Structure formats: structure tokens, C-alpha cells
Amino acid sequence: MKATPPLALLLSIAVAAPTSRSTPDYSRLTVAIVRAETASWPMPLMNKKWTDVQFTLNATIAKGIKLIEEAASNGANLVVFPELWFPGYPKGIADPRSIAPLLANYIDDFLTINSAHWRILIHTAATRNIYIAPAFSHLENGVLYMGQALISSNSTSFIRHKLRPSGKERDIWSDGTMDYMTFSMQSQAETLHPTAWPYTPDIADPRAAYWESLEMNLAVARVFAVNANPPLVFASVGNARFLDPQDLDLAIVEAETSTEEVPLVYQSFNTTDLAMTVPYTTHSEQSWSIL
Ligand SMILES: *[C@@H]1O[C@H](CO)[C@@H](O)[C@H](O)[C@H]1NC(C)=O
Ligand SMILES: *[C@@H]1O[C@H](CO)[C@@H](O)[C@H](O)[C@H]1NC(C)=O
Ligand SMILES: *[C@@H]1O[C@H](CO)[C@@H](O)[C@H](O)[C@H]1NC(C)=O
Predict the structure, then answer these.
(1) Residue nearest to atom 5 of ligand 1 (CA)
(2) By alpha-carbon position, which residue is closest to atom 8 of ligand 3?
(3) 276 band by pLDDT with thresholds 50, 70 and 90
(4) Are 222 and 247 spatial neighbours (Cβ–Cβ below 8 Å)?
(5) Residue 62 CA: which ligand 2 atom is closest?
(6) pLDDT of 171 over the 80 cut
(7) Residue 46: phi, psi to the nearest 5?
(8) Which ligand 3 atom minimizes the distance to the CA of 28?
(9) What distance in Å separates the CA atoms of residue 291 and residue 289, rounded to the nearest whole number?
(10) pLDDT for 7 beyond 60
(11) What is the mean pLDDT of residues 61-67?
């Protein structure tokens, strides 16, 4: 069987302050990175047996809101979720015997923009004055995409689709469009790069296929960061981290740490110089001038 590299969703954003209300001090931005599993998901991390486990978007939204509220209470300005956290990454998708009985239920557990569930996220961002970057199975015009969004505290949202779902993911999700290409993002002077990965074990985990390994996925994230130089959020169930603009680890929580005890990783950083960057540069590693 062909291997399935779950390459991350990548979203390019520039964090801007809302125009009204009491504006937090965004010169020191605090990101909360979700590393807890979705509401209904086989644990421990590398267990892919779906016996007696059913996806439920509703319960996942409820758990997601609890995490967002916890993050807001701890002073976070932005919460970033792992890939397909709503309603949960279909772990074991590379082995159809494991997940096949759940697929119909899974496909029905999509999120649509402006649904009641979506509006709960919008409402929470507004009432808690926090930005939310959910990653979700997105149904749009009858087609499912691997979606990621940035929901602002002023109720505006930006949506992105993974350009090319990996391997078996293509049985469920369709391709995004060309404007989601990595190059377009790398060639902009990003101020923050939140990436969403499904789940990541710790280094040298013998149970991990190469496409699940920390070594491979973190390498991909580091290559992005070192080319584009934004701080990078590595949101993932299990091993989650925050890389500085030079691509080095500022915060790490290992997968072996209980997700109940530590559901979120926090990192604050000084945005002063980042906020002064131009929207694009012709001199960076990836630049429009080389095209
Ligand atoms: C809402 O926030 C977004 C992102 O931070 C910003 O681009 C937009 O201008 C804001 N809209 C209003 C009406 O303030
Ligand atoms: C969805 O969750 C909410 C809040 O957690 C609950 O009040 C509601 O009854 C749930 N709906 C369904 C259909 O399970
Ligand atoms: C943030 O960075 C700016 C520019 O480098 C610096 O002047 C300022 O002192 C820094 N703030 C903190 C709290 O470190």
C-alpha cells in the first residue's frame, strides 16, 4: 500500500489588532497551541483501534470551546488547533480495515461556514476577545476540503484549504486551489505561521511510520520556517511546539506528557519587529523575483 504522508495544512496570516473594544497588547502575542485530542478519539496516541469510538462534531465543538476559554483565561490571544481536529483526524486511514466502518459517520461530521457550530466559534472569539485557528473537515458546495481558518475577535474569518491532501486522505477530501500554494506564503513576509498536524509521537518512536514521525514532519516545518522566517506554531496532538523565526524550538511539550494534564502549550513572543515587516520582499529565500 502506498504510504500516506499527512503533510500539514499551512496557513499564512498577519495578525492585526482589532479596531475597537479594549485592544490587548499585541506587541507581546501569546499563542495557545492545542495538543489535546479531539472529544472522541482512540488513545494513547499511536492506538488506531476505533472499537466503540464514534466521531462527534458536537462534542468536539464543546471540548474545543472549553479549551479556547481556558486559553483566554490564561491570557492567550490566539488558539491554534491540530489538523482536522473538528471532528478528529481519521487515524489509521492508511489501513481501510481499521476505519472503514466509521467513514459514513465521519463524512457526515463536517463543519460548514455559518452553521450553528461555526457560529459558536465566531461567538466565542468575539466574547473572549481571542483569535481562533480551527482546522476542520470543511463541506463547501457539496465538496469536502481539509480546512483551516483564522477567526478574528471581530467575527471576520479567513478560510484556507490544504492544496493537496496526502495519500489516502484523497479518498475523502478534494484539492484546494492554487492560491494556497506554499510558495505564495513563503514569499510573503509572514508575521506568524500556524501549522496544523494531525498527531505526532516523540522522536524515534518505533511505532511511527515515516510519515507519522516527528523527524519527518518537523523537518518539513523547519524547512518552511527557515525559508520564510516567521515564528511557526506546530499544533499537533501529542508532540506540539513553537519555533522562533530562526527555526529553533522555543517551546516543546513531548507526546509522553499527558494531554489531560497539559492540553495546551503557551508561548509569548515580541511582535514589534515582525509588525514592521513589509507584505512581501524580493530579497528573501523564496521571492517573487526568482519566478
Ligand atoms: C477584523 O479583523 C481582521 C483581522 O484581524 C482585519 O483584517 C479586519 O480589518 C477587521 N475588520 C474590522 C471591521 O475591524
Ligand atoms: C450539542 O452540544 C451541546 C452543548 O455541549 C448540547 O447542549 C446539545 O444538546 C448537543 N446536541 C446534540 C445533538 O448532541
Ligand atoms: C520588543 O522588541 C523591540 C524591538 O526589538 C524592543 O525595542 C522591545 O524592548 C522588545 N520588548 C520586550 C518586552 O522585550
Answers:
(1) 16
(2) 272
(3) low
(4) yes
(5) 5
(6) yes
(7) -90, 10
(8) 13
(9) 6
(10) no
(11) 98
Secondary structure E strands in 35-97? 78-80
- Those residues whose C-beta lies under 8 Å from the C-beta of residue 66, and which sit 6 or more positions away, are none
Query: What separation in angstroms does the CA of 289 have from each of 148, 185, 280, 285, 286?
Result: 29, 14, 11, 10, 9
Atom of ligand 2 nearest to the CA of 58: 1
Three state DSSP letters for 146-177: EEEEEECCCCCEEEEECCCCCHHHHHCCCCCC
Question: By three-state DSSP, how is residue 64 classified?
Answer: helix
Q: Which amino acid is at 260?
A: E
Nearest CA to ligand 3 atom 3: 272
The answer to whether 80 and 71 are in contact (CB under 8 A) is no
Whether 3 has a pLDDT exceeding 60, the answer reads no
The pTM for the full model equals: 0.90
Q: Which fold has domain 9-16+28-276?
A: Nitrilase/N-carbamoyl-D-aminoacid amidohydrolase (3.60.110)
Residues with CB under 6 A from ligand 2: 58, 62
When comparing pLDDT for 281 and 129, which is higher?
129
pLDDT tens, residue by residue, 193-210: 999 999 999 999 999 999
Residue 165, preceding bond cis, omega within 30 degrees? no
288 contacts 185 by C-beta, under 8 angstroms: no
| Backbone phi and psi for residue 239, each to the nearest 5 degrees, phi listed first | -80, 115
Q: For residue range 102-155, list pLDDT tens digits in order.
A: 888 888 899 999 999 999 999 999 999 999 999 999 999 999 999 999 999 999
Phi/psi of residue 180, nearest 5 degrees: -95, 10
Is the shortest distance between the CB of 19 and ligand 1 below 6 Å?
A: yes
